[in-house]
């Protein structure tokens, strides 16, 4: 049995039954049957379904958003924005996806042509986290529908209400039975699921440990896997930067979703010439962040997703101080009933500290002083993660240097890093491999078939 607990109040408000072995088998059988039909469905019909699903998200945006707020604590305004972003993603693949699937022909030097065509492969299993419960899943679902594959979602245990609503939206839009199914199962069932011959590929967004386990199982069964395993993104500020804009983005980047975002700016690396000025402004802005009722528009952030998640962050802060870091302020439990934590700043974190190899999933920033651009890049790369990054400089030569030398899958220049349906999303190193979104995300789980013609 899974439980929905409101982290803003601690109140348990719903329960969701776990699938039995027989029920899971029935869903796998439905997925296989649905794929045999859906793979032959004209692309124009798939596009029609994508638009219909987007319409359902628009029509139900308030109730969808409220479920995310109630289950994992994000502010209602951010939940509404997430639902809208999902609708936009469905429409993006409806509008632009067919062109991404057009065959590509090449003239061969020996005569004739080689044609590359994209074909669906079968049921794809998605293992998704709670922090962006709709968006993380839609990043996989929208291209899966267009590709002609079918989707099986194993969502996080604390957002089973969201998972059920997502399946409901697809069915209401006219999705064939079995095309998209929510699997209310525990993590212990994943290995056997990956081994099932009907599952052709796996995508996971989650922790490094979960990624290692899933990659091992996928490898044993010779199945394609895409992994997005989070990170500890650097946010570099150089002397030529617009300091006010950089500070504002650094605050938003660290507290959005209560700091529970894989591409949150987590490590602020600031050039020595402007370090003091940046830290003064940044500290003042972070002190002013208001944690409160996520349904109140005046709240800058809601609670963390659970009391367990808050305890994890508190343990990381205690360990950071033992390792020699300074907690300037924050990281406290406010006088509120839920899993709240105040925004805070850590300085003097030793570069050889174990904390550097961890991701703080909460509204706590680490601020570092860099002597020059070489030092900034060294600090940025001195961790095992490589998901995103942001750099603030007006110097084009410095911009080019950062793009070339920061070891990450993504770099934002003079803006906060964010995901978009149009652009590929993913990382390198211990942040995983493969890409979501854009044409690359569409093609990840398709068969690139080469056809030779005279």
TrEMBL record:
UniProt cross-references to CDD domains, sorted A to Z: ALDH_SSADH1_GabD1
Domain Aldehyde dehydrogenase: 2-451
UniProt keyword NADP present: yes
Keyword Oxidoreductase attributed: yes
InterPro entries xrefs: Ald_DH/histidinol_DH (IPR016161), Ald_DH_C (IPR016163), Ald_DH_N (IPR016162), Aldehyde_DH_dom (IPR015590), ALDH_GabD1-like (IPR044148), GABD/Sad-like (IPR047110)
Alphabetic keyword roster: NADP, Oxidoreductase
Xref: Gene3D superfamilies: Aldehyde Dehydrogenase, Chain A, domain 1 (3.40.605.10), Aldehyde Dehydrogenase, Chain A, domain 2 (3.40.309.10)
One of the Pfam families matching this protein, by short name: Aldedh
Family: Belongs to the aldehyde dehydrogenase family.
Protein name stated in the entry: Succinate-semialdehyde dehydrogenase
Species this protein is from: Sphingomonas hankookensis
């Amino acid at each position: 049995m899974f439980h929905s607990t409101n982290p803003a109040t601690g109140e348990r408000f719903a329960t969701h039954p776990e699938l039995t072995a027989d029920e899971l088998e029935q869903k796998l059988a439905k997925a296989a049957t649905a794929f045999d039909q859906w793979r032959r469905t004209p692309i124009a019909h798939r596009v029609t379904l994508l638009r219909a699903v987007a319409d359902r998200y628009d029509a139900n945006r308030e109730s969808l958003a409220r479920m995310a707020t109630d289950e994992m604590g994000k502010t209602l305004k951010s939940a509404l924005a997430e639902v809208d972003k999902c609708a936009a993603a469905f429409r993006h693949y409806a509008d632009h996806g067919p062109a991404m699937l057009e065959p590509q022909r090449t003239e061969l030097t020996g005569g004739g042509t080689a044609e590359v065509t994209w074909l669906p492969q079968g049921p794809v299993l998605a293992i998704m986290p709670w922090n962006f419960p709709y968006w993380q899943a839609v990043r996989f679902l929208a291209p899966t529908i267009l590709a002609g594959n079918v989707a099986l979602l194993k969502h996080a245990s604390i957002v089973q209400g969201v998972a059920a609503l997502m399946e409901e939206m697809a069915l209401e839009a006219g999705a064939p039975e079995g095309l998209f199914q929510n699997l209310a199962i525990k993590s212990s069932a994943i290995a056997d699921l990956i081994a099932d011959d009907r599952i052709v590929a796996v995508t996971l967004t989650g922790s490094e440990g979960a990624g290692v386990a899933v990659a091992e199982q996928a490898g044993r069964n010779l199945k394609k896997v895409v992994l997005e395993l989070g990170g500890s993104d650097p946010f570099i500020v150089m002397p030529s930067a617009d300091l006010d804009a950089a500070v504002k983005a650094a605050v938003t980047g660290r507290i959005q979703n209560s700091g529970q975002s894989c591409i949150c700016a987590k490590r602020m690396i600031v050039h020595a010439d402007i370090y003091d000025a940046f830290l003064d402004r940044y500290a003042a802005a972070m002190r002013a962040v208001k944690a409160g009722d996520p349904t109140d528009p005046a709240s800058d952030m809601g609670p963390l997703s659970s009391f367990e998640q808050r305890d994890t962050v508190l343990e990381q802060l205690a360990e950071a101080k033992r390792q020699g870091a300074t907690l300037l302020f924050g990281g406290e439990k406010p006088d509120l009933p839920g899993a709240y934590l105040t925004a805070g700043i850590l300085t003097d974190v030793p570069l050889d500290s174990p904390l550097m190899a961890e991701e703080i999933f909460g509204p706590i920033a680490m601020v570092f002083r860099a002597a020059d651009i070489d030092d900034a890049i060294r600090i940025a790369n001195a961790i095992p993660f490589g998901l995103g990054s942001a750099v603030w400089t007006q110097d084009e030569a410095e911009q080019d240097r950062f793009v070339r030398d920061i070891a990450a899958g993504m770099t934002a220049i003079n803006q906060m890093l964010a995901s978009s349906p149009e652009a590929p999303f993913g990382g390198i190193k211990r942040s995983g491999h493969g890409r979501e979104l854009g044409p690359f995300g569409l093609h990840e789980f398709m068969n690139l078939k080469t056809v030779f013609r005279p």
